[in-house]
Amino acid sequence: MSVAAIKKSPLIEVRNLNLHFGAFHALKNVSVSFEAGQLIGLVGDNGAGKTTLIKVLSGIHKPNSGEVYFDGEKVREFHPKLAIKFGIETLQQSVGLCDNLSIARNFYLGREPIKRWFGIPFLDFKKMREASTKVIRTFGLRDNVSADDLVEMLSGGERQSIKIGRAVEFKNRVVIMDEPTNHLSVREREHVNELAQQMRDQGLLVIYITHDIHQVHKLADRIVIMENGEKVTDVAKHEMTADELEEVIRCGGRVVEKASEVAPS
Ligand SMILES: Nc1ncnc2c1ncn2[C@@H]1O[C@H](COP(=O)(O)OP(=O)(O)OP(=O)(O)O)[C@@H](O)[C@H]1O
Ligand SMILES: [Mg+2]
């Protein structure tokens, strides 16, 4: 059998993606692939196209041209159900939880378990409470937090823990973290970063979007840098230091693909 025949498809593969917002060219011929069990740092300045790229992967934006493959299967239709179909959870600091509902209800948002009483369907609060209590404890929330507490009582880091717990419990395969540690304390930031690594260790693909190259360089297996809608760098972590990558970002990506390709001075 040839090597090509036994090679497994990447979990996500993007080929020559272009996306325009009116006259504005937001994604320019982006090609990138991501494997399961990797933690990818997706880095770049404001407006580089990071969020736009992950919105295409979640089915929120439809590209104008190019292809996306999940497990080798070409995506034919871009719609928000794509994320559910392929098991993609996107964690954003500001969205994803309803403040006025309990932790237990948030945990099951959109997939509430039902039990029947004389054929009449009821929400299964016991099940929601039990499963979310387990997650609260596993993911290190304070001991005095209960599954019945409203999410509005939680800190930013605790909210992230609920979303991460949900992603793991529902066996998602891809977790996209868009600036997951913004506005968090140092301790909470460390906790969220540990969870990102745990998810990677459990075999999930974690795409970690940030402006902080030094922070993500410590966690990631690979760093992808975007600039002005283009992918400008894609290297294994050991190939470039955080300082070298920061220089790439500072120079607007106008540096060759890999450190090893830089001509000696
Ligand atoms: N819905 C939209 N309509 C028009 N322009 C958009 C839309 N969404 C994003 N853009 C533009 O596309 C560019 C890329 O935006 P994007 O949100 O992907 O950047 P980003 O890399 O995530 O930046 P940040 O680090 O600030 O979050 C920006 O110039 C932005 O203004
Ligand atoms: Mg963004």
From TrEMBL:
Protein name: Sugar ABC transporter ATP-binding protein
Residue intervals of the ABC transporter domain: 12-253
Domain of life: Bacteria
CDD domains, per the entry: ABC_Carb_Monos_I (cd03216)
InterPro entries according to UniProt: AAA+_ATPase, ABC_carbohydrate_import_ATPase, ABC_transporter-like_ATP-bd, P-loop_NTPase
Xref: Pfam families: ABC_tran
GO molecular function, one term: ATP binding
ATP-binding keyword on record: yes
Keywords: ATP-binding, Nucleotide-binding
